[in-house]
Amino acid sequence: MNISNKLHITELIRLPEQGTEDRLELKTGVNVLVGPPNTGKSKWLQMLDYLLGDDDSAAEAFGEDVAKKYTSVTAKLRIGATELEIERRWGDDIPKSRVFRNKEAINVKQLRQELLEKLEIPVIHYPQGNPYGSRTWPELGWRSLYRHMYRRQRMWNDIADKQPDSEQHACILQFTGLGDRLFSKEYGELIEKEKQIIELNAQKEQFLAVLSSVSKELLSAEELGVGLSLQSLAVAKKRVQGEIGNLEDKRQRLLKSLAEEVDTSPASEFDELSEEMASSESKLEELRLASERISKRLIEMENYRSSIEQELERLGRAQAAGKVLADLKVTHCPACDRPAPANNSITNCFLCRRPLETTETSGSSIRVEMEIEQTRAVLAEANEMIEAILQDRIGIRRKIARIEQRVREIRGLLRPVQSAAAAVLPPEIGFLDQSVGKLQEQLSQIERIVSSLRLRENLTEQIDKIRVVTSELEQEVARQSGELDFEGSSDELQDAMNTYLNAIKKAAPVAWTQKEVKVRIDEKRTRFLLGEQKKWSNQLGGTLTLYFLLSYHYALMSLSNKARNNFPGFQVIDFPAELPDGSTIHDKENFVLEPFVELLNQEGFENCQVIAAGNAFENLQGTHRLEFSKVWS
């Protein structure tokens, strides 16, 4: 981030329904909005929040009463050398998300994106919880970051109230310049690839579990062993094939012995009928295929004929229109638009006076007539072809009917012979055929399992390809991680927070009664501790919490003069009228803001800005003071 690209507001303007507009002129450095409670200080800050990308309606953002009183609010601001005017209006005919940037209408989402771009804050995506979880990494947007810049009057309980820990951590990483390197594009891709490997391995295990369960019915315990494999399936396949071979040999021996007992004769009528049956069924199949082809051809020709008929109708309409339009006469002069003279010669053109054509039929009408004649000839040919196809189809259907009748006759003649043969065959033949059928089905199932098991190799290949990519990504992520200085960023925040607390302790020795603050930033979280690794929120009451949170804002502001950080040098602090422990803030306002005044007067913080709202800020030097006195009922 360019250290000159700091954000500061120069003017706030709100336009009432009636009367003159209200203005607040602001400067760089520390601005204090001073006045008793209910003088409208917080409403100005809420309106500024609304201008800077709030999704809510005007009534939701700063109250229905104020939304009714005013019709628009405008902020003039600077980011580096760029001046922007942002306006939001509200009313029945204005969309809730409408924003006017330099008078141009855009939406809230576009404004947020533009603020990040002009501040040169990179857009990152961060994990919420487990990086390998099913949730897509959300984008860390402007509004998430702004919650660390705007301390609302009612929000003095956490680093950023009502913000999940993972989002807080991502914001701090972004401000310290670590976010875009930790949550880099390569890291996101690496996580996605590793999630794919996990999913593929799970599919692979589930796939094998299902196949193993099915295989237990087909394989013996010895063949299956401890797990399903191509080798165990090959052994089972060989066993089943051997059993089928043994049964078929036994069947052949039975048939041979039976044939030896029966006096065989030359080719009988049974053999002739069987041959005729086979031949007829073969011819029947060929004729059915031919019938299907002819039916398809007939449909094509009928569609072709339909298109010709449509073309003929179109030409007929064109011919009729030509005859009607040919008799139309020019009634007005095309040059001056006056009526043509009534005494004009019918043989000469009334404009150029040259003789008119006397031919009744023009060249266009002749061409149309020729087109019609040609189309009629094509239609006649199509009708002839369709008639021939219909005759062919009738002939084939007659042949099919004759052959089907003959097949039925042959089956009737063979049925008694087959029944007699079945009665002669011993029952062992039937048992053997049934056993062979069962074994052949079992063999088919084994073949299908073998084919399915080979699909595992496809999953393995996919995993191997992804691992090659992850290996390259891991190297790049490792290189980027080596550049991450978590310790340095932790120390930077820690030192700044303790610098602030030392300053207020110097101004009021009994103000800070706790030990030093320790900050621990790593890949997964950011921790703020007190003394011996104690969580700050468990140790501090209302007043000490205020000091602690202000030290955090001071630490963020201290990041603004370093190019590697991404804090825009802008903060809005709305002090509460009363702390949770019942104490008032009135007598604490001055010395808690003095460290900010001193910081922003240092070199490198020239374009930074703090806007603070409170009750008094009496005798606070080095600030731009805005007084509020009218109490709103």
List the helices and strands and how they pair.
Elements lengths: L6 E10 L5 E4 L3 E6 L6 H11 L6 H5 L1 H6 E10 L2 E8 L8 E4 L2 E4 H11 L5 E2 L13 E2 L1 H5 L3 E2 L13 H11 L3 H4 L2 H31 L5 H4 L5 H32 L7 H58 L36 H62 L2 H56 L3 H22 L9 E5 L4 E5 L3 E2 L6 H17 L11 E5 L14 H12 L8 E6 L8 E5 L6
Parallel strand pairs: 3-15, 3-16, 10-14, 14-15
Antiparallel strand pairs: 1-2, 1-4, 4-5, 5-6, 6-7, 8-9, 11-12, 12-13
Describe this structure in words.
It is a single chain. The chain is of the alpha/beta class and about 625 residues long. The protein has 2 domains: about 5-175 and about 485-625, Rossmann fold; about 270-425. The protein is built from 16 helices and 16 strands. The chain has helices at about 40-50, 60, 65-70, 110-120, 140-145, 165-175, 180, 185-215, 220-225, 230-260, 270-325, 365-425, 425-480, 485-505, 540-560, 590-600, and strands at about 5-15, 20-25, 30-35, 70-80, 80-90, 100, 105, 125, 140, 150, 515-520, 525-530, 535, 570-575, 610-615, 625. A 6-stranded antiparallel β-sheet has the order 2-1-4-5-6-7. Strands 10-14-15-3-16 form a 5-stranded parallel β-sheet, sandwiched between helices. The protein has a 3-stranded antiparallel β-sheet with strand order 11-12-13. β6 (about 100) and β7 (about 105) form a beta hairpin. The longest helix has about 60 residues, at about 365-425. The protein is flat and about 130 Å long. The chain starts with 6 loop residues before the first strand and ends in a 6-residue tail after the last strand. The model is unreliable at about 265 (pLDDT under 50).
